[in-house]
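Saturday, quiet lab. Running sequence design on the structure tokens for the scaffold JK sent over.
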């Protein structure tokens, strides 16, 4: 009888532990908990622009636990302000290349969590290979959508030596975020490991990105050592450059560097293509968490169609009162489409994010 009771109490204890873990995971990104944790807030008090500069006055409120605030600003173009619906490819039946074992399924969970924690309002959907093909076939909605493919392998139903659903969709306005092995090199089949037969090769990369954008061969473990201006402004941490995305080629084609540079190579690059483009994380992905944070920051900040340079400032909150007014001067005038101003907690565990178009 006593043994039976001990088992009952053990089951109850385990049940409580499991429920507790589930609740903790659920509330990690929940808005009520965020509101309790956050004493941090930013608002714009005034904006004054001349032909050479723009002056901003920010009102900042913070708690004693807040350490710093990252602020960034850049002029907008008429094509700016994308807030797309996001489709994350996560199909465990397909092979991967140059990504960690938890990345395929983990990217969706973390991108979804990071964006929802920052009050992103558009849908974020996990899709299988067949679902992804359906999304890409619908080019009429491409400029409202973004696909995230952090697997290093395109499924054969989307891309192969005879099939290409990705290029027309991107040209129609879609945004494709990529990570892992070089885009276009591999075409995977459901339920089968990669073999030489799955290699479309360098011709696949050239078909998607054009010639001269990527330099083969891949150099695993290569890391960027110098941060780009946007990478510094947006606190981008991803540094792998092993795929060989060439910074100068990207910039010459109207693209941008959002990450780190290792000689001629870029870790995070945006390459325009038709009405859309590719956001390329240029190397292996051992851990989905930092990539998801960087991706969420880029999506929320929307620097892809910026019309000029970026300015940034790291404000040390421990040096200013809990309610402060900060003056910030930007070294550029405000265009007719305005300036994107973002402010966020640069701590990897921080969830505060503010954005506002100013100076219109």
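Result came back. Writing it out in full:
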């Amino acid at each position: 009888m006593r043994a039976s009771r001990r088992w009952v109490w053990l089951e109850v204890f385990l049940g409580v532990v499991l429920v507790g873990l589930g609740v903790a995971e659920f509330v990690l990104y929940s808005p009520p908990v965020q509101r309790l944790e956050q004493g941090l807030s930013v608002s714009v008090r005034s904006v004054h622009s001349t032909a050479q500069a723009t002056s901003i006055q920010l009102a900042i409120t913070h708690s004693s636990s807040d350490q710093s605030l990252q602020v960034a600003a850049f002029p907008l173009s008429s094509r700016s302000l994308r807030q797309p619906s996001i489709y994350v490819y996560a199909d465990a039946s397909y092979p991967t290349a140059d990504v960690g074992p938890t990345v395929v399924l983990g990217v969706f969970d973390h991108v979804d969590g990071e964006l929802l924690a920052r009050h992103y309002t558009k849908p974020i959907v996990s899709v299988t290979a067949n679902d992804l093909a359906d999304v890409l076939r619908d080019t009429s909605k491409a400029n409202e959508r973004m696909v995230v493919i952090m697997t290093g392998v395109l499924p054969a139903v989307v891309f192969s030596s005879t099939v290409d659903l990705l290029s027309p969709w991107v040209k129609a306005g879609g945004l494709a975020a990529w990570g892992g092995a070089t885009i276009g090199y591999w075409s995977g089949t459901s339920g089968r490991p990669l073999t030489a037969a799955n290699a479309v090769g360098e011709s696949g990369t050239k078909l998607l990105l054009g010639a001269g954008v990527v330099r083969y061969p891949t150099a695993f473990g290569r890391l960027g050592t110098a941060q780009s201006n946007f990478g510094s402004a947006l606190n981008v941490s991803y540094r792998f450059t092993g795929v060989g995305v060439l910074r100068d080629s990207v910039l010459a084609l109207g693209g941008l560097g959002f990450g780190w540079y290792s000689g001629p190579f870029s870790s995070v690059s945006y390459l325009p293509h038709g009405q859309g483009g590719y956001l390329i994380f240029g190397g292996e992905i051992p851990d989905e968490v930092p990539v998801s944070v960087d991706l969420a920051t880029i999506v929320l900040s929307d620097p892809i169609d910026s019309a000029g340079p970026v300015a940034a400032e790291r404000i040390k909150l421990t040096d200013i009162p809990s309610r402060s007014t900060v003056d910030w001067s930007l070294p550029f005038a405000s265009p007719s489409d305005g300036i994107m101003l973002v402010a966020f907690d640069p701590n990897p565990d921080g969830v505060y994010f503010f954005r506002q178009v100013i100076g219109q």
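Notes for JK: Residues 31-76+308-358 form a domain with the Immunoglobulin-like fold (CATH 2.60.40.1930). The chain has two domains: 31-76+308-358, 85-301. Ask whether to fix the surface positions before the next round.
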